[in-house]
User: What shape does this take?
Amino acid sequence: MRNNTTRLDHVVLWVADPVAAAAFYETAVGLEPVRVAEFAEGTAAFPSVRVNEETIIDLAPRGFAEQMRMLPGSADSAGHPVNHVCLSLPAADFDALKSRLEEHGVPVSGIDHGLSGARGDATRSFYFRDLDGNVFEARHYDD
Assistant: This one.
């Protein structure tokens, strides 16, 4: 593997209700909410949830798409299909996430073994959807 200092900073998901989405990610997925109060007060454009110290998921309201001006055609990205986002966790956190999702009534797929990813073949993985239908994979590797 190449020694590379590039990191994934953030992923932006279009959501119907950013506050509800942040609550889902906090309670069902176990991610730390960021700027939710500021969003509710109107001082932040959108809230986020923290995946780790280097990576967040931004929860952008779909109505915000019309304001997207960074690139011609950016507004058309609202609702653009993304196949899935993958979260890699330690084995105990993987098991805890699956249990927490099931406790919150979130359907999860069966367990897959050996799916290839950034660190090689995963020991176990499963899939679930968030409130807006975005698909997530959760996986862990043997360390």
User: Anything to note?
Assistant: Residues 91-103 form the longest helix (13 residues). The chain has a mean pLDDT of 89. The beta strands are 10-15, 32-34, 48-52, 55-61, 85-88, 116-117, 120-121, 124-129, 135-140. Residues 83-143 form a domain with the 2,3-Dihydroxybiphenyl 1,2-Dioxygenase; domain 1 fold (CATH 3.10.180.10).
